[in-house]
Design goal:
The chain is of the alpha/beta class. The chain contains twelve helices and twelve strands.
């Protein structure tokens, strides 16, 4: 049975700032912490400093996603340049680009970085569950119109929560499990843990929480036969699954930014459709640094042709971020210059 989406739909877009109250580090913090974990290996540190310099010289923000992208490119430079196109390939000093050698040390650092991400982004302790439940109960209750939202559960009967996130952590999945509302994540899992992406089922699922993890998730891993598994706790590169080696995590669909790749294309398409239909949108702690996501917001605003402020942007630097990175939609955004903790009146110890 196909579910007809209400015109009263609310979209939630979560960035790193939404995970900070849970004790999770930001993308910048993750990269800085990673440097500390390899500080005893001079060779790795030197290579990492080289990567850091290259990222900053080209005016990219030095965070864990930029670092992951760089290391992934060095691990298979020919493939990365081919996806970047003829112009990028022509600027390379080595010609043809098929002669460029892979970097074994970049591959080693990338594997270490993936282990670091798993360790820092996977949640599951009892105190983490309590914190997650308290925070998202408040948030979902507030945006679903519950009067006593600080002490009540969300209105599960009157709302379907369309949650998009660029975070890798499993906070929303854990929250859904704790409150008996398991989110639909866009994939199904077989008995042996293999994953099949089925984004077309977002429209028909009865789930009250629909979760779109645009940049992947810690529990997803890529096997040597190119199949994907989902496992909790997450598995690391080098481990085995039914005799097949895990060669990497499926956490950053963004590095290659291939807009026709599954499931990146489908997830962005759903984002555009949901924003087009939405009565309101809540953006929490997002940096608006992804050009493809920014373009979707621009396109939707132009399509709707409304001057009303239907987007609430919650971030300590909300006004500056939206005016400097996405000024075209300023008229549609209500900037709330507060942290997520402040917005939800969370106690300091939370």
């Amino acid at each position: 049975m196909r579910i007809i989406l209400s015109v009263n739909i609310s979209v939630i877009f979560l960035g790193a700032g939404a995970s900070v109250p849970l004790g999770l580090p930001t993308m910048v913090d993750l990269s800085e912490r990673f440097e500390e974990t390899i500080s005893s290996d001079v060779r790795l540190v030197q290579h990492l400093l080289k990567a850091k310099g290259a990222i900053r010289r080209n005016r990219f923000s030095y965070d864990v996603e930029s670092l992951y992208t760089y290391l992934l490119g060095c691990s298979d430079p020919c493939a990365s340049l081919e996806k970047a196109g003829p112009y990028a390939a022509s600027k390379c000093r080595t010609q043809p680009i098929s002669k460029i050698r892979r970097s074994g040390i970049s591959e080693k650092i990338r594997e270490r970085l993936e282990e670091h991400l798993i360790k820092n982004c996977y949640l599951g302790q009892e105190y983490e569950k309590r914190r997650i439940t308290n925070m998202f109960n408040r948030f979902f209750a507030k945006i679903s119109g519950v009067n006593d939202w600080e002490h009540s559960e969300p209105d599960w009967n009157g709302k379907i929560f369309e949650v998009f996130t660029t975070n890798y952590d499993n906070a929303i999945e854990l929250y859904g499990s704790e409150v008996g509302q398991m989110p639909f994540t866009g994939y199904t899992k077989t008995q042996n843990g293999k994953v099949r992406f089925v984004p077309e089922q977002y429209d028909s699922t009865p789930a009250k929480i629909k979760l779109y993890k645009i940049h992947g998730s810690v529990e997803l891993s890529l096997l040597e036969d190119d199949s994907i598994i989902a496992a909790e706790p997450p598995k690391s590169p080098g481990e085995k699954h039914e005799g097949k080696s895990i060669i990497g995590k499926v956490m950053v669909y963004g590095p290659n930014k291939s807009l026709i790749a599954e499931p990146y294309f489908e997830l962005l398409a759903h984002l555009k459709k949901r924003l087009t239909d939405a009565h309101e949108c809540f953006v929490v702690g997002y940096s608006f640094r992804d050009p493809w996501i920014n373009q979707i917001f621009r396109d939707v605003v132009n399509h709707r042709r409304q001057r009303t402020r239907w987007i609430e942007f919650i971030s300590p630097s909300a006004r500056y971020t939206i005016s400097s990175r996405l000024h075209e939609i300023v008229a549609n955004v209500q900037p709330i210059n507060r942290s997520f903790q402040q917005y939800l009146n969370l106690p300091e110890e939370e």
